[in-house]
Amino acid sequence: MAELNAYKPIRTKYNGILFRSRLEARWAVAFEEFQIDYVYEMEGFELESGPYLPDFWLPQVTMWAEIKPQMFTRDEVMKCHHLARH
Fold first, then answer.
1. Would you say the C-alpha torsion 70, 73, 9, 38 has a positive or negative sign?
2. How confident is the model over 37-83, as pLDDT tens digits?
């Protein structure tokens, strides 16, 4: 069985948008099914923990959504925390 760290994203086009992975495209499908508006990779940020480009902006609930195939690393959690404070 392959390790989760060996996950290789496959760029996937859906609804005219080229997503960095099939997983992100599947989330776009789910958002649409639940009638949740989204903007893919709307804005990047320079945070104290480094550059960060959240996957989705969900304007109806005014929140960012980050999609990962496994648990967030400590660094990823820190970036999310810094974005929330930003």
1. positive
2. 999 999 999 999 889 999 999 999 999 999 998 899 999 999 988 98
- Cβ neighbours, 10 Å, residue 62: 7
Can you point out the beta strands (E) in the chain?
12-14, 17-19, 39-40, 45-47, 50-52, 56-58, 63-65
Q: What is the pTM of this model?
A: 0.83
Rg for the chain, CA atoms, rounded: 14
Q: How far is CA 26 from the centre of its chain?
A: 11
Check the CA dihedral 71-77-79-82 and report its sign: positive
Is the Cβ–Cβ distance between 52 and 45 less than 8 Å?
A: yes
Residue with tokens 């940020």: 45
CA 21-24-33 angle, to 5 degrees, is: 140
pLDDT at 86: 83
